Amino acid sequence: MSQTSIRSYRNKYLDSVKLLAASRALLDTPGIQWGTVVTGTPANIEVLIEEGFDSATLSGLTANDLVMAARGGDADRAFSNAEQMMFNAKPAAESANEQFSIRSLTETMGLAKPPNLAVISVGGAYAALEAHKAIGASMDVLLFSDNVALDDEIELKRRAAERSLFLMGPGAGTAMIDGVGLGFANVVRGGSIGVVAAAGTGAQEVMSLIDRAGLGVSQVIGVGGRDLSEEVGGVMTELAIQSFEDDPKTEAILVVSKPPSPTVSKRLLNRTGAKPIVAVLIGLDQPIDVAPHVRLATDLEEGVIAVTSALGAPFVPDSAGLFDQAVRAIAEVDDSRKAVRGLFSGGTLCFESMTLIAEQGLDVYSNTPLRSDLALESAKPDSHVCLDLGEEEYTRGRPHPMIDPAARIELIQAEGAMDDTAVILIDVVLGYGSHDDPAGQLATACANVMAIEGGPQVVAYVLGTDSDPQGIVSQRAKLEEVGCIVAPTNARAALTAIAIATRRPEISEFRRNR
Questions:
Q1: Do 351 and 488 reside in the same domain of the chain?
Q2: For the domain that residue 386 is a member of, what is the CATH number?
Q3: Is the same domain home to 13 and 119?
Q4: Same domain as 344, residue 207
Q5: Using 50, 70 and 90 to split pLDDT, how confident is the model at 513?
Q6: Which of 41, 265, 431, 456 would you call most buried, defined as having the most Cβ atoms within 10 angstroms of its Cβ?
Q7: Helix (H, G, I), strand (E, B) or coil at 307
Q8: What would the pLDDT profile of 239-250 be if each residue is shown by its tens digit?
């Protein structure tokens, strides 16, 4: 086994975004076979020991400490690259004992008045306390942290709403406030559509499609995946809708959520209002009554078409050629291969794909299943499977797949080698925070899979805009050049995948009557 190296920093904490970026810098160092930068939690230490790092060296580290670990190559160089990312070229010793608060940061930055928005990305056990401090300082909060207790979320949102402040999250990975992207965000036009999203990549998908329609967003407010649950009651969604109703720059409102509480949704969507509202309620399993100015949609593409149509500039996906490409793939993929294997970096994109597959009367299994009986361990050969690789079981000890494609490359190769895989379905998410060249990283693995005689077809969707740092045109081209079918929306990618797997090419053109 290659040489392993560890470097630790006592009593030093950095947020998860910094750690993910540092991990990528470490992994990008030539010769490094495996590496990560994490806090010294018991779970992370366990992962490092499983990877072959010395348990004695790791002994005594706590969640208050940072750990860099690398296998192979020039570890000192890799650690130096990671330190540059973590400490902005400051010597580690100089920054090791700095402690910050809202007040000290204001003084250090020389601000004339306190900031009005806080982005909090600390361990879940500490996140609620920091969010309460920010609310007490009259700040809106983007709570990037997850693993925050439900009771804490309810209390935080109640307290924030009483002060007309936003508590975005927990687990709010995306927002755009006054043109500034927070978390994972795309470069989009400013405009007149206000987006309220209880889904991170759901927010990215709709803001990017709105941009591609030639329109723009006024604000994107991420409210956290549990906001529309029965327990939380849609506190932040309601505040966001009212804020958009009061905002003269906003002409239409788009609400996005994975399965919401029907009771909460019905209450929020029956309120009076003067502006058109489109609500994309993915996975809602029962009809609900809504006010006359509200339109329901069941997938992200449909929602964007509806809200852009309300403003006179409907989004029209360019799906020319998808049917012919599905026919070609059906002829080339061996008839014994029947399964779609979805490998997603975006949780909402994974969930949307599963709902569209299920609408075709098919079962799809997942680590985030639509129903309890469709849990991953129940899958059999020939089963359709969609994995959300951003979930904790796939990110323990390694960066999120939007940042580091390595885990997906391994799974593409593994699923491609399976005899029952007809289609590998992937998303490629562009924008700030994502890998500099995700399509370029994935293309070789995709090409190798499709080079198998009678092997699977790769169907991809690239989420992004022309203005994103990676550039959507070049990213799509890299996948198309190796033979991937690249769809214009996530919904159409899912339908094309199932069309090939079931040998029914007409599904690739299926859309609901709108």
A1: yes
A2: 3.40.50.261
A3: no
A4: no
A5: very low
A6: 456
A7: helix
A8: 999 999 999 999
Buried b (16+ CB within 10 A) or exposed e, 120-131: bbbbeeebbebb
Please give the average per-residue pLDDT across 205-219, as a whole number.
97
Q: pLDDT value at position 90? A: 46
End-to-end C-alpha distance for the chain, whole angstroms: 58
Which of 138, 171, 204 is the last residue in one of the domains? 171
Q: What is the DSSP letter of 274?
A: S
Of 156, 171, 186, the residue at which a domain comes to its end is 171
CA distances from 419 to 338, 379, 416, 447, 485 (A): 9, 15, 8, 17, 21
pLDDT the model gives residue 106: 59
Number of domains forming the structure of the chain? 4
Q: What is the pLDDT averaged over residues 63-71?
A: 89
**8 Å CB contact between 444 and 436:** no
Strand partners, 280: 256, 297
With contact defined as beta carbons under 8 Å apart, do 25 and 85 qualify?
yes
- Specify if 514 maps to a domain: no
User: Quick one: 267 and 383 in the same domain?
Assistant: no
The answer, yes or no, to whether residue 73 has pLDDT greater than 80, is yes
Q: Is the pLDDT of residue 94 over 60?
A: no
- Per the domain annotation, does 132 fall within a domain? yes
Quote the CA–CA distance of 430 and 184 in Å, as a whole number. 9
pTM of the model: 0.86
Q: Rounded to the nearest 5 degrees, what angle is found at the Cα of 318, between the Cα atoms of 313 and 320? A: 145
Please report, for the domain that includes residue 44, its CATH number: 3.30.1340
CA 124 to chain centre: 18
Nearest C-alpha neighbor of 147 from the set 391, 402, 467, 429: 391
Say which DSSP state 81 is in. H
Residues 107 and 79 in one domain: no
Residues 194, 156 share a domain = no
Average pLDDT of span 35-60 = 87
Residue type, position 454, single letter: G
| Distance, CA of 121 to CA of 20 (rounded, Å) | 12
Q: Based on the domain organization, do 498 and 350 belong to the same domain?
A: yes
Tens digit of pLDDT for each residue in 288-343?
A: 999 999 999 999 999 999 999 999 999 999 888 899 999 999 999 999 999 999 99
**Which is nearest to 357 in space by CA: 202, 497, 509?**
497
345 or 122, greater pLDDT = 345
Per the structure, the complete domain to which residue 167 belongs is given by: 103-171
Other beta carbons within 10 angstroms of residue 380's beta carbon come to 9
Q: Both tokens of residue 483?
A: 């033979």
Q: Is the peptide bond before 91 cis (omega within 30 degrees of 0)?
A: no
Query: Do 185 and 290 fall within a single domain?
Result: yes
Residue 358 falls inside a structural domain? yes
pLDDT at 512: 44
Segment 417-446 mean pLDDT: 96
The C-alpha atoms of residue 226 and residue 509 are separated, in whole angstroms, by 33
**Tokens 């609620």 belong to residue:** 128
Interval 172-184 mean pLDDT: 92
